[in-house]
Design a protein that fits this description.
The protein is an alpha/beta fold and 227 residues long. Helix 1 runs parallel beside helix 4 and helix 5 packs across helix 6.
């Protein structure tokens, strides 16, 4: 029994269990659907390029909630010392299979097994969308803890007010809600956690990609002590 399934916090962390079970069930189908996820997404490629330039050569980078490791591999291809972390062992199996030279670990973004200030960069690429809004302060505080002063964080998510519930995808007996956020809400929570917001990019939904919501990309920095 893992830590998220036991103890007094089990009920509070039920969303972690639900998320892991959901992605364990759909991992292969999900990976096949998003095999070419960055093709036709020039804004996303550009944002990842900016993030890579900000953190390149400054230390390790964590792709938190890495899923099948496609974005981890992209960042590695841009020259970063990057590793992935995810709740789902099935997703991690795909990530390891497709990126044999990279490191992938199982764990929760809310309780990272990393020393304070050990990362130059952290990426949450659509991985905060299953975290309840009342736990986002805890999540961003944990991101802030593991980043070194001057380190950068990139958070990507679907923007909006209407959540989207997925029930029995590909016929699997699982369900999960994908939560959408207002960019200004996430920006405020990042500021409250101690970050300085560097950029906020929101692009319109692309009907050719079957999108129904705007896509938001926020880059924030953990301030360095004054000289």
């Amino acid at each position: 029994m893992t830590d998220i399934e036991s103890g007094t916090g089990a009920a509070q962390n039920q969303f972690l269990i639900d998320t892991r079970v959901f992605y364990d069930a759909i991992a292969e189908d999900y990976a096949a659907l998003f095999e070419e996820e960055l093709v036709g997404r020039p804004v996303e490629r550009a944002i990842l390029g900016v993030f890579a330039e900000l953190v390149d050569g400054k230390g390790p980078v964590a792709d938190l909630g890495c899923g099948p490791g496609r974005t981890t591999g992209r960042l590695a291809g841009l020259g970063l010392d990057v590793f992935g972390l995810d709740l789902s062992e099935s997703m991690l199996a795909i990530a390891r299979r497709e990126n044999p030279g990279l490191r992938f670990e199982q764990g929760s973004m809310l309780d990272l097994d990393l020393p304070d200030g050990s990362l130059a960069g952290a990426l949450s690429w659509y991985s905060s969308i299953h975290t309840p809004v009342d736990r986002l302060p805890d999540l961003f505080t944990e991101f802030h803890r593991v980043l070194a002063p001057g380190g950068h964080l990139l958070v990507a998510f679907q923007a909006g007010d209407q959540h989207r519930h997925h029930d029995r995808p590909w016929g699997h007996d699982v369900a999960l809600t994908f939560q959408r956020r207002r960019p200004e809400t996430v920006a405020g929570l990042l500021t409250d956690a101690g970050f300085t917001l560097l950029s906020q990019t929101v692009r319109a939904p692309d009907a050719t990609l079957d999108e129904t919501s705007q896509q938001a990309f926020l880059i924030a920095r953990k301030p360095a002590p004054a000289a």
